[in-house]
Amino acid sequence: MKIDGTLYHSIWPEDDGRTVGIIDQTRLPHSFVTRHLRTLDDAATAISDMQVRGAPLIGATAAYGMAIALRKDPSAQMMSHAYDVMHATRPTGMNLKWALDETVQTMRSLPEDQRADAAWALADEICRRDIETNQAIGSHGLDLIKAIAAKKGPGETINLLTHCNAGWLATVDWGTATSPIYQAHEIGLPVHVWVDETRPRNQGASLTAWELGRHGVPHSLIVDNTGGHLMQHGMVDLCIVGTDRTTASGDVCNKIGTYLKALAAHDNDVPFYVALPSSTVDWTVDDGIRDVPIEQRDGTEVSWIPGKDAEGRETSVLICPESTPVVNYAFDVTPARLVTGLITERGVCDASKAGLATLFPEKVTAA
Residues of CATH 1.20.120.420 domain(s) within the chain? Predict the structure, then answer.
């Protein structure tokens, strides 16, 4: 996507074949900082500290982390160690495990002296496929936006609501939930995006608003609890969010607060769609509420808010008494019954086992 007219991916291999570049998302929106990953620990820290985040981008980073490790030591022992280190970084998202499993399965059949180059090539391929997948998701989601536009008057604004950041910063490019929005904008449809601030880390305010603004997409920032009010007053035509893990039955695990948006959408007859690559589906799990592990993160993400003061200095402020205990669940699960449909690289389907089977019969059979 574009940052003030310049094309960027969220992660990229450097020419030396040993180093990976990333955008440090913890510094956005006030500073645009890039970093280099040169070691396994660099890659693990980038994921755990959320310098990179979003399920597809985490998967791509994990693949490069494995490749970096195998550059130094292509042994089976290192491969196992690197897998464990990377897998421990974030427990909820599915793409992390998917990318690690694909790397290990591919490398096991190769001689040690071929593993380093092959792992690097596979990481490149995972990134390429992610871009193609997200572009396809956007194409299918664009049809939904076109259908809304057809029901409105000429030039009438199409209001979309999204939660957290499922944009190109959460993927290698295009994004999942934002891909249809970007494609609608590119063909001249008058879209406007309601951007949830998305507490506690404000990834809507700091990331989604930043990338939409840099790409020139009209948007407005709202506090998390405004969405229901907007829906009650007919000011939202479509909700579209991403997901970190989707069960085989269509339950959706996404950033905390997604469930509340789905409830409000259901109560106000607003379509609620989830955009996802099939690599985000956990075909081994049916009950998201019972079986998906929900990450609990450090309470300082809730009690301290980073920002910029009136003098333009980046700082953090404490918003509660220092002694206040904090519980910080990172995700919640939206039951399939509240999801209008799933937007995938193969098309749109019902959020159900039968719906997914229509698009991915080989996955359902294998599971």
Answer: 2-128
Q: What is the pLDDT of residue 310?
A: 93
Collapsed DSSP state (helix, strand, coil) of residue 112: helix
Nearest Cα to Cα of residue 266 among 299, 296, 239: 239
Per-residue tokens: 190: 């008058």
pLDDT (0 to 100) of residue 367: 57
Distance CA 295, CA 289 (A): 13
Instruction: Report if pTM > 0.90.
Output: yes
Q: Which two tokens stand for residue 156?
A: 């009438």
DSSP 234: T
pLDDT at 4: 77
Residue 364 has pLDDT above 80, yes or no: no
The answer to whether 244 and 311 are in contact (CB under 8 A) is: no
CATH 3.40.50.10470 domain range(s) in the chain: 138-366
- Can you tell me the distance from the alpha carbon of 172 to that of 160, in angstroms, rounded to the nearest whole number? 23
Residue type, 46: A
Segment (H or E) for 147 = helix 112-151
Q: What is the CATH number of domain 2-128?
A: 1.20.120.420
Taking CA atoms, 312 is separated from 107, 299, 304, 308, 362, in Å, by: 49, 26, 18, 6, 54
pLDDT tens digits, 212-266: 999 999 999 999 999 999 999 999 999 999 999 999 999 999 999 999 999 999 9
Q: Active-site positions?
A: 244
Q: Is 341 helix (H, G, I), strand (E, B) or coil?
A: strand
Report how far Cα 32 is from the mean position of its chain's Cα atoms. 19
Name the CA dihedral angle for 83, 84, 89, 91, rounded to a multiple of 10 degrees.
Answer: 100
**Sequence-ordered list of residues with C-beta below 8 angstroms from that of 321, at least 6 positions apart, any chain:** none
Distance CA 215, CA 194 (A): 16
Contact 131, 170 (CB under 8 A): no
Q: Give the strands of the sheet with 331-334, arranged side by side.
A: 281-282, 245-247, 252-255, 331-334
Options 3.20.20.10, 3.40.30.10, 3.40.50.10470, 3.40.630.10; CATH for 138-366 is 3.40.50.10470
Contact call for residues 93 and 52 (beta carbons, < 8 A): no
